[in-house]
Amino acid sequence: MIGVMNHLLHPDYFEHIPLVGNTIAQRLNGLSEVVIETQGNVSVAIRTLNEATALEALLNDIQRQKFNGNIDIVVVDNESTDNTVEVAKKFGARVVTLPRDSFTYPRSMNLGMESAKYNHVFLTVGHAQLVSINSLQAAFSILQDPDIAGVFGHALPSKNASLTENFIAIGNLHFTKSREAKKTGLGVMAATGCMIDKMTWEKLGKFDERYEQGGEDGALAAEILKNGYKIIDQPLIGTHHTHGLGFKNTLKQWYGWTKLSKPSSFDRDELVQRRPDINSDK
Hints:
Blueprint: H1 21-33, E1 40-48, H2 52-63, E2 69-77, H3 84-90, E3 94-97, H4 105-115, E4 120-125, E5 129-130, H5 135-142, E6 148-152, H6 163-168, E7 179-180, E8 194-197, H7 198-203, H8 216-226, E9 230-233, E10 239-240, H9 247-258, H10 268-274
Parallel strand pairs: 1-2, 1-4, 2-3, 6-9
Antiparallel strand pairs: 4-8, 5-10, 6-8, 7-9
Helix pairs in contact: 2-3
């Protein structure tokens, strides 16, 4: 059993990571202990579709944040038919509806950014959970440097992670120190856990809506670096985000992600074929 981690929201999620789970948890807890408490305001933009139960868990994580300022929450909902909207409103979140026949990944992200009240916007999805009580504070403090336009973290296993996903998480031992991202790649500024400076997002043309099936986050990251801004990899910004996929479907998922490096039109059926983590009704 992993010992008490005062600053981690879900220390039990690390118990099933082979060999290094306890080490990763200890390092993240240590990072959280030294977060600089800069005062200010942040927005959190969450993309959802029929995720009432998971969204409630995420909003509980947001409520537990030790943030020195105001937290504005906007939920971009893709016409959920469960009680996702009711859950969002129960936590005081503002809900913006994106019709299903108008959905693309970059459109949902741009809508979340446009609807955010504050300049520093944390982007995630309804089925993710935060790592630390200091996740938002860590991201916000880093973005006070005008040369830095984005902060992100890597995905960690959640409570539904498969054996395969927990074994893959061993690699997160290499991402337990804050560092500057010198180039883009899979996971850099992933929209499951990143914070972006809104003024820079607007200046660089927002998320490119040609990337209808995804990849718009990586494209914006490339623009950020191309224009001389910095991106910081801060492990505390990572989220617990896995889909319970076995070995075969995990490979299929990764293959699907590699197809997102170039713009492509949104085709729900084709996307589901490449991405086993996506339900056919989403």
